[in-house]
Amino acid sequence: MRKSRLFAASSVLLASAALLAACGSKSSSSSSKPQKLAWTEAAELTTMDPSKATDRYDADQFNNVMEGLIRLSNKAKATPGMAKSWKESADGKTWTFNLRKGAEWSNGDEVTANDFVYSWRRTVDPKTASEYAYLFSGIKNADAIVAGKKKATALGVKADGKYKLVVTLDRRIPYFKLLMGFYIFFPQNQKFVEKCGSKYGTAAKYVLSNGPFKMTGWTGTNLSWKLKKSNTYWDKKNVKLDEVSMSVQKTQTTSYNLYQSGKLDETNLNAQQSKQLKGTKGWTIRKFASTRYLQYNIAKDKNLANANLRKAISLSINKSQLATTVGAANAPAVSFTAAGITDGATGKDFSSEVETAATKAVQGYDKAKAKEYYKKALKELGKKSITIQLLGDDTDDAKKVTEFIQSALETNLGMKVEVSNVPFKTRLSRVSALNFDVVATGWTADFSDPISFLDLLAKGNAYNYGKWQSSSYNKNLTTSKTTSSTADRWKALVAADQALVEDQGVTPLYYSNEATLVKTSVKGVVFNGAGSPYNFKEAYIK
Questions:
Q1: In the Cβ-directed half-sphere of 39, how many Cα atoms lie within 13 Å?
Q2: Is pLDDT of 277 > 70?
Q3: Three-state secondary structure call for residue 431
Q4: Is 362 helix (H, G, I), strand (E, B) or coil?
Q5: Which of 304, 293, 395 is nearest to 337 (CA)?
Q6: Are 214 and 230 in contact (CB under 8 A)?
Protein backbone atom coordinates (compact mmCIF):
# COMPACT_ATOMS: atom_id res chain seq x y z
CA MET A 1 0.00 0.00 0.00
CA ARG A 2 1.58 2.68 -0.59
CA LYS A 3 1.83 4.45 -0.46
CA SER A 4 0.45 5.28 -1.82
CA ARG A 5 -2.43 6.74 -2.04
CA LEU A 6 -4.39 5.14 -0.84
CA PHE A 7 -7.37 2.05 0.08
CA ALA A 8 -22.15 8.14 -0.16
CA ALA A 9 -24.06 10.94 -1.56
CA SER A 10 -26.26 13.04 0.71
CA SER A 11 -25.74 15.39 3.64
CA VAL A 12 -25.89 13.94 7.13
CA LEU A 13 -29.32 14.35 8.67
CA LEU A 14 -29.82 15.86 12.12
CA ALA A 15 -31.22 12.51 13.16
CA SER A 16 -27.73 11.03 12.86
CA ALA A 17 -26.43 13.07 15.79
CA ALA A 18 -27.11 10.35 18.31
CA LEU A 19 -25.38 7.82 16.10
CA LEU A 20 -22.26 9.99 15.87
CA ALA A 21 -22.13 10.95 19.53
CA ALA A 22 -20.38 7.75 20.59
CA CYS A 23 -17.25 8.83 18.68
CA GLY A 24 -16.37 11.42 21.29
CA SER A 25 -16.98 9.47 24.52
CA LYS A 26 -14.09 9.26 26.97
CA SER A 27 -12.49 6.32 28.71
CA SER A 28 -10.51 6.13 31.91
CA SER A 29 -7.41 4.20 32.91
CA SER A 30 -6.94 2.23 36.09
CA SER A 31 -3.15 2.51 35.81
CA SER A 32 -1.32 4.66 38.35
CA LYS A 33 0.96 5.95 35.59
CA PRO A 34 -0.59 7.97 32.74
CA GLN A 35 -1.09 5.61 29.84
CA LYS A 36 -0.67 8.15 27.07
CA LEU A 37 1.42 7.69 23.95
CA ALA A 38 2.56 10.37 21.46
CA TRP A 39 3.21 8.96 17.97
CA THR A 40 3.95 10.37 14.54
CA GLU A 41 3.02 9.89 10.89
CA ALA A 42 5.05 11.22 7.97
CA ALA A 43 2.06 12.43 5.95
CA GLU A 44 -1.52 13.59 6.36
CA LEU A 45 -4.48 11.23 6.31
CA THR A 46 -6.48 10.97 3.09
CA THR A 47 -9.65 9.19 4.23
CA MET A 48 -11.03 6.98 6.97
CA ASP A 49 -13.41 5.19 4.63
CA PRO A 50 -11.94 1.64 4.59
CA SER A 51 -13.33 1.02 1.10
CA LYS A 52 -11.45 4.01 -0.31
CA ALA A 53 -8.25 4.29 1.72
CA THR A 54 -5.02 3.30 -0.02
CA ASP A 55 -1.98 4.27 2.05
CA ARG A 56 -0.04 3.16 5.13
CA TYR A 57 -0.83 6.28 7.15
CA ASP A 58 -4.56 5.61 6.95
CA ALA A 59 -3.79 1.93 7.53
CA ASP A 60 -2.18 2.69 10.89
CA GLN A 61 -5.40 4.31 12.05
CA PHE A 62 -7.66 1.51 10.80
CA ASN A 63 -5.46 -1.03 12.55
CA ASN A 64 -6.28 0.63 15.85
CA VAL A 65 -9.80 2.05 15.56
CA MET A 66 -11.22 -0.95 13.74
CA GLU A 67 -10.84 -4.71 13.75
CA GLY A 68 -11.40 -7.40 11.16
CA LEU A 69 -12.04 -11.09 11.44
CA ILE A 70 -8.36 -11.60 12.24
CA ARG A 71 -5.85 -9.38 14.04
CA LEU A 72 -2.22 -9.77 13.00
CA SER A 73 0.25 -9.93 15.87
CA ASN A 74 4.06 -9.93 15.66
CA LYS A 75 5.49 -11.55 12.52
CA ALA A 76 2.01 -11.45 10.95
CA LYS A 77 0.71 -14.20 13.24
CA ALA A 78 -3.05 -14.54 12.83
CA THR A 79 -4.89 -14.10 16.14
CA PRO A 80 -8.65 -13.94 16.83
CA GLY A 81 -10.29 -10.58 16.18
CA MET A 82 -14.00 -10.27 15.48
CA ALA A 83 -13.83 -13.99 14.66
CA LYS A 84 -13.13 -16.18 17.66
CA SER A 85 -12.34 -19.13 15.38
CA TRP A 86 -12.27 -20.13 11.71
CA LYS A 87 -12.04 -23.21 9.51
CA GLU A 88 -10.75 -23.79 6.00
CA SER A 89 -12.26 -26.55 3.87
CA ALA A 90 -10.06 -29.36 2.56
CA ASP A 91 -10.00 -27.89 -0.96
CA GLY A 92 -9.27 -24.39 0.35
CA LYS A 93 -12.31 -22.89 -1.35
CA THR A 94 -14.57 -22.35 1.67
CA TRP A 95 -13.72 -20.46 4.83
CA THR A 96 -16.09 -20.33 7.79
CA PHE A 97 -15.60 -17.67 10.46
CA ASN A 98 -17.34 -17.89 13.83
CA LEU A 99 -17.87 -14.39 15.18
CA ARG A 100 -17.81 -13.60 18.87
CA LYS A 101 -21.11 -12.63 20.46
CA GLY A 102 -21.44 -9.29 22.20
CA ALA A 103 -18.82 -7.38 20.20
CA GLU A 104 -20.01 -3.81 19.71
CA TRP A 105 -19.49 -0.76 17.57
CA SER A 106 -18.72 2.45 19.44
CA ASN A 107 -22.38 3.49 19.04
CA GLY A 108 -23.56 0.37 20.87
CA ASP A 109 -24.68 -1.61 17.81
CA GLU A 110 -23.64 -5.25 17.79
CA VAL A 111 -21.02 -6.30 15.25
CA THR A 112 -22.52 -9.08 13.14
CA ALA A 113 -21.72 -11.14 10.08
CA ASN A 114 -23.90 -8.81 8.02
CA ASP A 115 -21.47 -5.97 8.72
CA PHE A 116 -18.80 -7.91 6.83
CA VAL A 117 -21.16 -8.82 4.00
CA TYR A 118 -22.19 -5.19 3.59
CA SER A 119 -18.60 -3.92 3.73
CA TRP A 120 -17.22 -6.38 1.20
CA ARG A 121 -20.10 -5.83 -1.22
CA ARG A 122 -19.70 -2.08 -0.91
CA THR A 123 -15.98 -2.27 -1.68
CA VAL A 124 -16.29 -4.42 -4.81
CA ASP A 125 -19.26 -2.43 -6.14
CA PRO A 126 -17.95 -0.35 -9.08
CA LYS A 127 -20.02 2.58 -7.81
CA THR A 128 -17.71 2.84 -4.79
CA ALA A 129 -14.67 3.09 -7.08
CA SER A 130 -12.39 1.37 -4.59
CA GLU A 131 -8.82 1.15 -5.86
CA TYR A 132 -8.36 -1.88 -3.61
CA ALA A 133 -11.27 -3.87 -5.04
CA TYR A 134 -8.77 -6.08 -6.89
CA LEU A 135 -7.71 -7.65 -3.58
CA PHE A 136 -11.05 -9.48 -3.58
CA SER A 137 -10.02 -11.36 -6.73
CA GLY A 138 -10.36 -15.06 -6.06
CA ILE A 139 -13.48 -14.64 -3.94
CA LYS A 140 -16.39 -16.05 -5.94
CA ASN A 141 -17.66 -13.61 -8.60
CA ALA A 142 -15.45 -10.73 -7.38
CA ASP A 143 -13.77 -10.18 -10.75
CA ALA A 144 -17.08 -10.15 -12.59
CA ILE A 145 -18.57 -7.69 -10.09
CA VAL A 146 -15.61 -5.31 -10.31
CA ALA A 147 -15.89 -5.49 -14.11
CA GLY A 148 -19.57 -4.54 -13.89
CA LYS A 149 -20.77 -7.91 -15.19
CA LYS A 150 -22.52 -9.05 -12.01
CA LYS A 151 -24.20 -7.37 -9.06
CA ALA A 152 -22.35 -6.97 -5.76
CA THR A 153 -24.88 -9.30 -4.11
CA ALA A 154 -23.32 -12.17 -6.11
CA LEU A 155 -20.07 -11.93 -4.13
CA GLY A 156 -19.09 -15.20 -2.46
CA VAL A 157 -19.74 -14.05 1.10
CA LYS A 158 -22.83 -14.68 3.19
CA ALA A 159 -24.06 -14.43 6.76
CA ASP A 160 -25.26 -17.70 8.23
CA GLY A 161 -27.12 -16.12 11.12
CA LYS A 162 -25.64 -13.23 13.11
CA TYR A 163 -22.40 -14.90 14.13
CA LYS A 164 -21.23 -17.03 11.22
CA LEU A 165 -19.62 -15.73 8.03
CA VAL A 166 -19.08 -18.09 5.10
CA VAL A 167 -16.69 -17.12 2.29
CA THR A 168 -16.60 -19.04 -1.00
CA LEU A 169 -13.54 -18.79 -3.24
CA ASP A 170 -13.07 -19.53 -6.93
CA ARG A 171 -9.65 -20.95 -6.13
CA ARG A 172 -7.41 -21.55 -3.18
CA ILE A 173 -5.71 -18.31 -2.13
CA PRO A 174 -2.42 -19.09 -0.31
CA TYR A 175 -2.41 -15.76 1.51
CA PHE A 176 -6.14 -15.55 2.30
CA LYS A 177 -5.72 -15.59 6.08
CA LEU A 178 -3.30 -12.64 5.87
CA LEU A 179 -5.84 -10.71 3.81
CA MET A 180 -8.37 -11.02 6.61
CA GLY A 181 -6.11 -8.92 8.81
CA PHE A 182 -5.99 -6.08 6.27
CA TYR A 183 -8.35 -3.13 6.68
CA ILE A 184 -10.03 -3.40 3.27
CA PHE A 185 -11.75 -6.53 4.65
CA PHE A 186 -12.88 -4.91 7.90
CA PRO A 187 -16.62 -4.61 8.68
CA GLN A 188 -18.72 -1.50 8.13
CA ASN A 189 -21.96 -0.55 9.84
CA GLN A 190 -24.50 -0.03 7.08
CA LYS A 191 -26.79 2.23 9.12
CA PHE A 192 -23.89 4.51 10.03
CA VAL A 193 -22.44 4.62 6.51
CA GLU A 194 -25.78 5.48 4.94
CA LYS A 195 -26.56 8.19 7.54
CA CYS A 196 -23.17 9.81 6.93
CA GLY A 197 -23.60 9.65 3.17
CA SER A 198 -20.78 11.32 1.28
CA LYS A 199 -19.22 12.53 4.54
CA TYR A 200 -18.45 8.99 5.70
CA GLY A 201 -14.79 8.72 6.68
CA THR A 202 -14.04 12.41 6.05
CA ALA A 203 -13.63 13.43 9.71
CA ALA A 204 -13.48 11.75 13.11
CA LYS A 205 -17.19 12.29 13.78
CA TYR A 206 -17.93 10.31 10.62
CA VAL A 207 -15.83 7.32 11.72
CA LEU A 208 -17.36 4.43 13.66
CA SER A 209 -15.05 2.19 15.66
CA ASN A 210 -15.21 -1.49 16.54
CA GLY A 211 -11.55 -1.66 17.57
CA PRO A 212 -9.48 -0.88 20.68
CA PHE A 213 -9.55 2.89 20.11
CA LYS A 214 -11.81 5.63 18.80
CA MET A 215 -10.65 8.58 16.71
CA THR A 216 -11.27 12.11 17.93
CA GLY A 217 -10.14 15.55 16.79
CA TRP A 218 -9.51 14.80 13.12
CA THR A 219 -11.28 17.31 10.90
CA GLY A 220 -10.22 15.77 7.61
CA THR A 221 -7.44 18.26 6.94
CA ASN A 222 -5.63 18.88 10.23
CA LEU A 223 -2.31 17.32 11.14
CA SER A 224 -3.04 16.10 14.67
CA TRP A 225 -5.73 13.94 16.27
CA LYS A 226 -6.19 11.43 19.08
CA LEU A 227 -7.02 7.75 19.42
CA LYS A 228 -8.85 7.19 22.69
CA LYS A 229 -9.54 3.87 24.39
CA SER A 230 -12.94 2.49 23.43
CA ASN A 231 -15.34 1.49 26.19
CA THR A 232 -17.27 -0.76 23.81
CA TYR A 233 -14.37 -2.87 22.48
CA TRP A 234 -14.84 -6.57 23.26
CA ASP A 235 -11.33 -6.93 24.73
CA LYS A 236 -11.06 -3.52 26.42
CA LYS A 237 -9.73 -5.08 29.63
CA ASN A 238 -6.49 -5.86 27.81
CA VAL A 239 -6.10 -2.40 26.25
CA LYS A 240 -3.77 -0.47 28.56
CA LEU A 241 -3.36 2.84 26.75
CA ASP A 242 -5.94 5.53 27.47
CA GLU A 243 -4.88 7.72 24.60
CA VAL A 244 -2.58 7.94 21.59
CA SER A 245 -1.81 11.46 20.36
CA MET A 246 -1.06 11.33 16.64
CA SER A 247 0.69 14.10 14.74
CA VAL A 248 2.06 14.52 11.23
CA GLN A 249 5.75 15.43 11.18
CA LYS A 250 7.13 15.90 7.68
CA THR A 251 10.54 17.13 8.87
CA GLN A 252 12.74 14.76 10.87
CA THR A 253 14.59 17.65 12.51
CA THR A 254 11.35 19.00 13.96
CA SER A 255 10.21 15.53 14.96
CA TYR A 256 13.51 14.79 16.71
CA ASN A 257 13.40 18.09 18.61
CA LEU A 258 9.90 17.25 19.82
CA TYR A 259 11.15 13.82 20.86
CA GLN A 260 14.05 15.37 22.77
CA SER A 261 11.73 17.78 24.56
CA GLY A 262 9.46 14.93 25.66
CA LYS A 263 6.55 15.83 23.41
CA LEU A 264 6.90 12.69 21.26
CA ASP A 265 7.57 9.09 22.26
CA GLU A 266 8.80 8.12 18.79
CA THR A 267 10.51 9.75 15.86
CA ASN A 268 11.86 8.72 12.47
CA LEU A 269 15.48 9.60 11.79
CA ASN A 270 17.13 10.88 8.65
CA ALA A 271 20.41 9.39 7.43
CA GLN A 272 22.64 11.75 9.38
CA GLN A 273 20.65 11.42 12.59
CA SER A 274 20.65 7.63 12.33
CA LYS A 275 24.43 7.47 11.96
CA GLN A 276 24.93 9.76 14.92
CA LEU A 277 22.43 8.04 17.19
CA LYS A 278 23.03 4.41 16.24
CA GLY A 279 23.40 2.30 19.36
CA THR A 280 21.71 4.76 21.71
CA LYS A 281 18.78 3.65 23.83
CA GLY A 282 15.59 3.34 21.80
CA TRP A 283 17.36 3.28 18.41
CA THR A 284 15.88 0.58 16.16
CA ILE A 285 15.44 -0.32 12.51
CA ARG A 286 11.92 -0.96 11.26
CA LYS A 287 12.14 -3.26 8.26
CA PHE A 288 9.27 -2.62 5.89
CA ALA A 289 8.29 -4.72 2.90
CA SER A 290 8.48 -1.48 0.94
CA THR A 291 9.93 -0.30 -2.37
CA ARG A 292 10.36 3.27 -3.57
CA TYR A 293 10.21 3.59 -7.34
CA LEU A 294 9.62 5.84 -10.33
CA GLN A 295 6.36 5.40 -12.18
CA TYR A 296 6.10 6.66 -15.75
CA ASN A 297 2.99 8.05 -17.41
CA ILE A 298 3.28 5.86 -20.49
CA ALA A 299 -0.36 6.42 -21.39
CA LYS A 300 -0.05 10.18 -21.91
CA ASP A 301 3.65 10.78 -22.64
CA LYS A 302 4.99 9.33 -25.91
CA ASN A 303 8.55 9.98 -24.79
CA LEU A 304 8.17 7.85 -21.67
CA ALA A 305 6.48 5.13 -23.69
CA ASN A 306 9.94 4.59 -25.21
CA ALA A 307 11.65 1.75 -23.31
CA ASN A 308 15.13 3.03 -24.18
CA LEU A 309 14.38 6.34 -22.47
CA ARG A 310 13.21 4.55 -19.33
CA LYS A 311 16.35 2.40 -19.34
CA ALA A 312 18.50 5.50 -19.74
CA ILE A 313 16.82 7.07 -16.73
CA SER A 314 17.35 3.95 -14.64
CA LEU A 315 21.02 3.53 -15.52
CA SER A 316 21.79 7.18 -14.77
CA ILE A 317 20.68 6.86 -11.13
CA ASN A 318 23.14 5.52 -8.54
CA LYS A 319 20.59 3.67 -6.45
CA SER A 320 23.04 2.67 -3.72
CA GLN A 321 24.00 6.28 -3.15
CA LEU A 322 20.38 7.41 -3.32
CA ALA A 323 19.30 4.81 -0.76
CA THR A 324 21.84 5.89 1.85
CA THR A 325 21.31 9.58 1.10
CA VAL A 326 17.67 9.22 2.13
CA GLY A 327 18.15 6.87 5.07
CA ALA A 328 20.92 4.78 6.57
CA ALA A 329 18.63 1.74 6.81
CA ASN A 330 17.66 1.71 3.13
CA ALA A 331 19.08 -0.64 0.48
CA PRO A 332 19.28 -0.31 -3.33
CA ALA A 333 16.49 -2.14 -5.15
CA VAL A 334 17.15 -4.97 -7.58
CA SER A 335 13.48 -5.90 -8.00
CA PHE A 336 10.05 -4.33 -7.75
CA THR A 337 9.06 -6.72 -4.96
CA ALA A 338 10.69 -5.61 -1.73
CA ALA A 339 13.46 -7.57 -0.06
CA GLY A 340 12.53 -9.70 2.93
CA ILE A 341 9.76 -11.73 1.32
CA THR A 342 10.65 -15.42 1.26
CA ASP A 343 10.01 -17.64 -1.76
CA GLY A 344 7.62 -20.27 -0.43
CA ALA A 345 9.07 -22.92 -2.75
CA THR A 346 12.82 -22.35 -2.39
CA GLY A 347 13.16 -20.60 0.97
CA LYS A 348 15.29 -17.89 -0.65
CA ASP A 349 14.71 -14.16 -0.57
CA PHE A 350 12.43 -13.48 -3.53
CA SER A 351 14.27 -10.32 -4.61
CA SER A 352 17.54 -12.23 -4.98
CA GLU A 353 15.88 -14.62 -7.42
CA VAL A 354 14.68 -11.75 -9.59
CA GLU A 355 18.20 -10.41 -10.13
CA THR A 356 19.91 -11.74 -13.28
CA ALA A 357 22.43 -10.46 -15.81
CA ALA A 358 19.53 -9.13 -17.88
CA THR A 359 18.01 -7.16 -14.99
CA LYS A 360 21.39 -5.85 -13.84
CA ALA A 361 22.01 -4.52 -17.35
CA VAL A 362 19.19 -1.97 -16.94
CA GLN A 363 18.75 -1.71 -13.18
CA GLY A 364 22.37 -0.98 -12.28
CA TYR A 365 24.29 2.30 -12.42
CA ASP A 366 26.25 2.88 -15.64
CA LYS A 367 26.64 6.41 -17.00
CA ALA A 368 28.09 5.29 -20.35
CA LYS A 369 25.25 2.84 -21.05
CA ALA A 370 22.73 5.41 -19.86
CA LYS A 371 23.98 7.85 -22.50
CA GLU A 372 23.81 5.15 -25.19
CA TYR A 373 20.19 4.38 -24.37
CA TYR A 374 19.39 8.10 -24.26
CA LYS A 375 20.87 8.62 -27.74
CA LYS A 376 18.82 5.69 -29.05
CA ALA A 377 15.67 7.12 -27.50
CA LEU A 378 16.26 10.59 -28.96
CA LYS A 379 16.81 9.11 -32.42
CA GLU A 380 13.67 6.93 -32.21
CA LEU A 381 11.60 9.86 -30.97
CA GLY A 382 13.06 12.37 -33.39
CA LYS A 383 14.07 14.69 -30.57
CA LYS A 384 17.21 16.66 -29.74
CA SER A 385 16.42 16.85 -26.05
CA ILE A 386 13.71 15.85 -23.61
CA THR A 387 12.18 17.65 -20.64
CA ILE A 388 10.23 15.81 -17.97
CA GLN A 389 8.28 16.89 -14.91
CA LEU A 390 9.11 14.93 -11.77
CA LEU A 391 6.41 14.79 -9.10
CA GLY A 392 7.03 13.96 -5.44
CA ASP A 393 5.75 14.53 -1.91
CA ASP A 394 6.71 17.54 0.21
CA THR A 395 8.41 15.58 3.02
CA ASP A 396 12.14 15.81 3.73
CA ASP A 397 12.82 12.33 2.36
CA ALA A 398 10.77 12.88 -0.79
CA LYS A 399 12.57 16.14 -1.51
CA LYS A 400 15.92 14.37 -1.19
CA VAL A 401 14.77 11.76 -3.71
CA THR A 402 13.54 14.24 -6.32
CA GLU A 403 16.62 16.45 -5.91
CA PHE A 404 18.93 13.45 -6.32
CA ILE A 405 17.14 12.21 -9.45
CA GLN A 406 16.98 15.68 -10.97
CA SER A 407 20.74 16.06 -10.53
CA ALA A 408 21.46 12.58 -11.91
CA LEU A 409 19.38 13.00 -15.06
CA GLU A 410 20.56 16.51 -15.82
CA THR A 411 24.21 15.69 -15.16
CA ASN A 412 24.43 12.24 -16.74
CA LEU A 413 21.96 12.60 -19.62
CA GLY A 414 21.57 16.31 -20.24
CA MET A 415 17.82 16.07 -19.70
CA LYS A 416 15.90 18.94 -18.20
CA VAL A 417 13.95 17.92 -15.10
CA GLU A 418 11.31 20.16 -13.57
CA VAL A 419 10.54 19.12 -9.99
CA SER A 420 7.24 19.59 -8.16
CA ASN A 421 6.98 18.58 -4.48
CA VAL A 422 3.41 18.73 -3.17
CA PRO A 423 1.45 17.50 -0.13
CA PHE A 424 0.82 13.75 -0.08
CA LYS A 425 -2.92 14.13 -0.63
CA THR A 426 -2.33 16.42 -3.61
CA ARG A 427 0.18 14.02 -5.12
CA LEU A 428 -2.30 11.15 -4.90
CA SER A 429 -4.97 13.27 -6.57
CA ARG A 430 -2.69 14.30 -9.41
CA VAL A 431 -1.47 10.78 -10.06
CA SER A 432 -5.02 9.38 -10.01
CA ALA A 433 -5.98 12.02 -12.61
CA LEU A 434 -2.91 11.06 -14.73
CA ASN A 435 -1.63 14.60 -14.23
CA PHE A 436 2.07 13.70 -14.12
CA ASP A 437 5.05 12.68 -16.26
CA VAL A 438 7.15 10.78 -13.74
CA VAL A 439 6.27 10.35 -10.07
CA ALA A 440 8.54 9.26 -7.24
CA THR A 441 6.27 6.98 -5.27
CA GLY A 442 6.36 3.85 -3.19
CA TRP A 443 4.48 0.77 -2.11
CA THR A 444 4.42 -1.18 1.12
CA ALA A 445 3.08 -4.72 0.85
CA ASP A 446 -0.43 -5.30 2.14
CA PHE A 447 0.64 -8.81 3.09
CA SER A 448 3.88 -10.76 2.82
CA ASP A 449 3.65 -12.07 -0.73
CA PRO A 450 5.09 -10.77 -4.05
CA ILE A 451 1.62 -10.59 -5.56
CA SER A 452 0.95 -7.58 -3.32
CA PHE A 453 3.48 -5.71 -5.46
CA LEU A 454 3.07 -7.36 -8.82
CA ASP A 455 -0.71 -7.05 -8.96
CA LEU A 456 -0.28 -3.26 -9.03
CA LEU A 457 0.90 -3.27 -12.65
CA ALA A 458 -1.51 -5.89 -13.96
CA LYS A 459 -3.67 -4.90 -16.89
CA GLY A 460 -6.67 -2.97 -15.64
CA ASN A 461 -5.42 -2.50 -12.09
CA ALA A 462 -6.38 0.91 -10.70
CA TYR A 463 -2.85 1.44 -9.37
CA ASN A 464 -1.29 0.98 -12.81
CA TYR A 465 -1.52 4.74 -13.27
CA GLY A 466 1.01 4.89 -16.09
CA LYS A 467 -0.78 2.09 -17.99
CA TRP A 468 2.39 0.06 -18.61
CA GLN A 469 1.57 -3.20 -20.38
CA SER A 470 3.41 -6.47 -20.99
CA SER A 471 1.84 -9.66 -22.32
CA SER A 472 4.49 -11.86 -20.68
CA TYR A 473 4.01 -10.04 -17.37
CA ASN A 474 0.25 -10.53 -17.40
CA LYS A 475 0.61 -14.14 -18.53
CA ASN A 476 2.88 -14.95 -15.60
CA LEU A 477 0.51 -13.24 -13.16
CA THR A 478 -2.35 -15.34 -14.48
CA THR A 479 -0.26 -18.50 -14.11
CA SER A 480 0.59 -17.58 -10.52
CA LYS A 481 -3.11 -17.40 -9.71
CA THR A 482 -4.30 -20.50 -11.52
CA THR A 483 -1.61 -23.12 -11.04
CA SER A 484 -2.03 -25.67 -8.26
CA SER A 485 1.74 -26.08 -7.98
CA THR A 486 3.49 -23.99 -5.32
CA ALA A 487 6.79 -24.18 -7.20
CA ASP A 488 5.21 -23.09 -10.49
CA ARG A 489 3.44 -20.24 -8.75
CA TRP A 490 6.66 -18.79 -7.40
CA LYS A 491 8.51 -19.30 -10.69
CA ALA A 492 5.79 -17.33 -12.46
CA LEU A 493 6.03 -14.51 -9.93
CA VAL A 494 9.81 -14.32 -10.34
CA ALA A 495 9.42 -14.25 -14.13
CA ALA A 496 6.85 -11.43 -13.90
CA ASP A 497 9.14 -9.28 -11.76
CA GLN A 498 12.04 -9.92 -14.15
CA ALA A 499 9.94 -8.89 -17.15
CA LEU A 500 9.00 -5.65 -15.39
CA VAL A 501 12.58 -4.76 -14.47
CA GLU A 502 13.99 -5.67 -17.88
CA ASP A 503 11.50 -3.35 -19.59
CA GLN A 504 11.70 -0.73 -16.81
CA GLY A 505 7.91 -0.51 -16.67
CA VAL A 506 8.72 1.22 -13.42
CA THR A 507 12.20 1.93 -12.07
CA PRO A 508 12.75 0.43 -8.60
CA LEU A 509 14.95 2.79 -6.58
CA TYR A 510 15.47 1.42 -3.08
CA TYR A 511 13.95 -0.77 -0.40
CA SER A 512 12.63 1.60 2.24
CA ASN A 513 13.33 0.83 5.88
CA GLU A 514 13.15 3.28 8.77
CA ALA A 515 15.58 4.10 11.54
CA THR A 516 13.60 5.25 14.55
CA LEU A 517 13.94 6.27 18.17
CA VAL A 518 11.32 4.99 20.60
CA LYS A 519 11.30 5.85 24.29
CA THR A 520 12.36 2.83 26.35
CA SER A 521 9.28 3.33 28.52
CA VAL A 522 7.08 2.36 25.55
CA LYS A 523 6.34 -1.36 25.56
CA GLY A 524 4.18 -3.79 23.61
CA VAL A 525 3.83 -1.95 20.29
CA VAL A 526 3.27 -4.53 17.55
CA PHE A 527 5.02 -3.81 14.25
CA ASN A 528 4.62 -5.62 10.93
CA GLY A 529 6.56 -4.60 7.83
CA ALA A 530 3.67 -5.59 5.55
CA GLY A 531 0.07 -4.47 5.82
CA SER A 532 -0.85 -2.02 8.59
CA PRO A 533 2.46 -1.32 10.37
CA TYR A 534 1.57 -0.34 13.93
CA ASN A 535 -0.82 -1.95 16.39
CA PHE A 536 -1.23 -0.29 19.79
CA LYS A 537 -3.73 -2.71 21.31
CA GLU A 538 -1.13 -4.32 23.60
CA ALA A 539 1.05 -1.23 24.06
CA TYR A 540 1.64 0.43 27.43
CA ILE A 541 3.89 2.90 29.21
CA LYS A 542 6.13 1.35 31.85
A1: 23
A2: yes
A3: helix
A4: helix
A5: 293
A6: yes
Three-state secondary-structure class, residue 399: helix
DSSP SS3 for 216? strand
**Residues near 76 by beta carbon (within 8 Å), at least 6 away in sequence:** 178, 181, 447, 448, 528, 530, 531
Tens-place pLDDT, residues 418-462:
999 999 999 999 999 999 999 999 999 999 999 999 999 999 898
**CA separation for the pair 362, 148 (Å, rounded):** 39
Q: What are phi and psi of 332, to 5 degrees?
A: -60, 140
Instruction: Check residue 102 and give left, alpha or beta (phi > 0: left; psi -120 to 50: alpha).
Output: left
Residue 185 phi/psi, 5-degree rounding, is -105, 10
Torsion sign across C-alpha atoms 173, 174, 176, 179: negative
Give the whole-angstrom CA distance, residue 39 versus residue 244. Answer: 7
What does DSSP assign to residue 74? Answer: G
DSSP 472-485: HHHHHHHHHHH-S-
Quick check: 29 pLDDT over 50? Answer: no
Does position 284 have pLDDT exceeding 90, yes or no? yes
Residue type, 265: D
- Give the residue from 187, 200, 233 showing the smallest Cα distance to 68: 187
User: Is 95 in contact with 423 (CB distance < 8 Å)?
Assistant: no
SS3 236: helix
Give, rounded to a whole angstrom, the gap between the first and last alpha carbons of the chain: 32
For 233-330, strand residue ranges (E) read 243-248, 266-268, 283-286, 290-296
For residue 274, is pLDDT > 70?
Answer: yes
